[in-house]
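ARCHIVE RECORD
Type: protein–small molecule complex
Small molecule: NDP
Source of inputs: curated submission
Record status: active
Notes field left blank by submitter.
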Amino acid sequence: MTATHSTRMLILGSGPAGLSAAIYGARAGLAPIVVQGMQPGGQLTITTDVENYPGFKDVIQGPWLMEQMQAQAEHVGAQMMYDQIVDVDLSQRPFRLTGDGGIVYLADTLVICTGAQAKWLGVEGEEHLAGKGVSACATCDGFFYRGKKVVVIGGGNTAVEEALYLTNHSHDVTLIHRRDTLRAEKILQERLHAHPNIKVLWNKAVDKFVGGGTPEGLVGIDLIDTVTGEKSHEPTDGGFVAIGHHPATELFTGKLPMDEGYLLVEKGTSRTSIPGVFAAGDVTDKIYRQAVTAAGMGCMAALDVEKFLAEADFEAMAAE
Ligand code: NDP
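STRUCTURE (tokenized, with ligand):
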């Protein structure tokens, strides 16, 4: 027989958003269940140094921070499930979700914190040098390149914002784009072009991230001109890939409204279009994408859950 778990608060995802929601939910006496998903701990478990999460004077490690958050959530009463949801039915109450081993979760409220994954180029050297010069987050890692030469790859808002941000640390920033026009907003483009410390390389695709030195780190990027096919090499200390993100929302396609795959929530809240279903963190945020903002949104979601449960008339909703 397959197990069934009933809960007042089911949380999907165990990054900073999910675990913050769990901490607040547990302390409110809601005994939340956290379904941890494919990557327990989320994106921070694949980063190393974290220097911008408030509360720590010294650099901390991403995986350690997530272990602490999980331990804190468990300590106050959240239950962790090492499971992956494969089916969601939001048309009945309680909501019914099924894990990949067949476990059924019946939930009065659902908080979706499934996060997003940075898109990578998939070229040689990228994976090997990730964390050793190659990064997908300038806000997280830019600080480590003070006074060094950096490049940003991409042509959207994120790439241009990251290039501008990196000028706070570096006097030598290069944006590399595969075409000859950017898709970023005009105002950002104007700022980019007006900045004396940013140059743009047009029509260039990355062929390879090149490592060197001891300990090994990124030393340059091999490029191919997308128009002429000509090869070139750009020396650099840091390579920031900014070609977009994949929010993990496949489970909710056709069930909840989205914008470019990101779950839509009512402004200033974590409420989705279905009462009792909430979203927090990168799954609903294509702009800030920080651990601390995700944690803040997780807290908001737990407070929204509490309010919803206090006011909800489940009998009336079931009869709808
Ligand atoms: P986008 O999808 O807007 O842009 C991705 C960029 O990466 C494009 O220029 C694209 O090139 C390039 N790219 C994609 N794949 C590759 C590849 N394999 N090789 C080389 N280049 C590649 O992603 P963003 O993260 O910039 O933005 C996502 C959404 O978030 C957008 O709606 C954006 O407006 C929004 N956003 C808003 C912000 C704000 O309002 N402040 C800040 C950040 C994001 P090409 O142009 O040729 O397709």
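CURATOR ANNOTATION: The pocket of NDP is lined by residues 121, 154-159, 161, 178-179, 183, 243-245, 260, 286-287 (CB under 6 Å).
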